[in-house]
Write a structure and sequence with these properties.
Elements (H helix, E strand, L loop, with lengths): L9 E3 L5 E3 L5 H4 E3 L2 E2 L14
Antiparallel strand pairs: 1-2, 3-4
């Protein structure tokens, strides 16, 4: 996972998982009138966190 500048924004954990934090501005989360990154989430399809 890389930022807009091309540099990594996360750190690889000992378990091989990448942990990163991102911030989505209100302007960038709505891609089009019918495509919103937050409103279109489907948490019922996510697996359990380990």
């Amino acid at each position: 996972m890389v930022g807009a500048d091309g540099w990594p924004i996360g750190e690889m954990g000992h378990d091989g998982r990448l942990d990163a934090e991102t911030e989505l501005s209100a302007q960038r989360r709505r891609i089009s009138e019918r495509n919103d990154l937050f409103e279109d989430r489907r948490p019922d399809l996510y697996g359990p966190r380990s």
